[in-house]
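Collaborator request, handled under Task 6.
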Amino acid sequence: VSIDFARGTAEQAREQFALDAAALAASDQLGMPEQDRDGPLAAQAYFRANLGDRSNATLDTVVMDADAGQVRASASGTIVTQLMKVFGVDSMRIGASSTVAKGDQTFEIALVLDNSGSMAGSYITDLKTAAKNLTGVLYAGADGTSKVSIGIVPFAGSVNVGTDYRTANWIDGEAKNSVHYENVSENRTRFQLFDDMGVAWGGCVEVRPGTLATDDTPAASGNGDTYFVPMLAPDEPDSVNASGDSYSNSYLVDDGGTCTPQPTTCTRYDRRGRCTQTAKVPLTPAVAQARTCKYKSQTPSGGSGPNASCTTKPVLPLTKTRSVVDAHIDQLTASGSTNISEGLMWGWRLLSSSEPFADGRADDTPRNNKIIILMTDGENTYYSASNHNHSSYGAYGYAAKDRLGTTYTNAALRSNMNANLQTACANAKAAGITIYSVAFRLESDPTTQSLLSSCASSGSKYFSASNGAVLISTF
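Structure tokens returned to the collaborator:
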């Protein structure tokens, strides 16, 4: 009898091991759109692979319960007895059951997603599918609870924090930051200029100056540079004041508003010496651009306007409800340039327990995980220009203000943005953030691939996706 019992115990252990592996394999599909099909298929494959040829056990049930965050499975089989046949027992039934359930850890996750113009078309569609598949998995058994919170940072050339935060105590509405007035000749705040034109602020903010660009220091009255400056793309010079240079964002008349009209000079006379044509006496480009009087009661016309470079949907702070997160993902659009480090920094700020959002748990909370999933399909970009600004306006202001170094080529500006990304990643990881990074369609860009690989918390947390289908499976 003891021999048959020992054989039965060994078979039960073999069956239980195979069933546990099967349930674990099925759990990867929890919350996925086809969980009830793909989960049992994965379980069956793992069960057979781990069981071996000596067993006749079968996988009887696989129940995928996303609401509970569980997979329940059962299996059964028989062994032919040897000595117990003497007592009329020809076989023994062996059964096993297994439950895989999400544990007691908590997760705060920031999805930092590239929404630049190169993501247009099928790529942004694939990203939405990938991100929503991921939320299904993460929220399985945790939707609406405090176990899982997810935030979204759609980034392009800048990050949109949302117009609802115009009066927040961390927004620089009172020009405390040293860069607030760098594009104007008089002390008119960004919000005053928006109001002068009757135009709503788009919600984007500039990168903070210096080392504050890459750390999570909260806004504090003792240091004005810790406040976040609202982006306002200045009206650039009219053609008459451009000194022959090219400017892409002239949307107001330089001597309109409450400005004193520019003096004129005669440019054509008739035979009797009478003036038949006049032209404005040019201002220097810098003087024309910095005027604040021109914003008063003028309606922007032409160019990209004061919200140029603010192209993305607002961030979504940490949220416990899947439907809210998925609805935000559905709204994502692709437009603009690429500023990876600023996307990453706002992902960190979503997870932080301090302002701007302060929704994250304290860093020392036991069994809590803070995670950034960073995805981009392109290199950092800042566009140089052959005029007195040396670049288009963006989240770093104008290149001429030297916040990205003193060499104004596209390559040099990108190099400094890359350095900021490296520092931001290092600082976030040092603060206890786990970073996963995904390089999408970057096979021909080893520099950005290397940046993303080094940004990830480990080699196993870096992924390369060559197309939309791979992006979906990667997420």
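The cover message to the collaborator said: "DSSP finds ten helices and 13 strands in the chain. The mean pLDDT is 94. Please let us know whether this matches your experimental observations."
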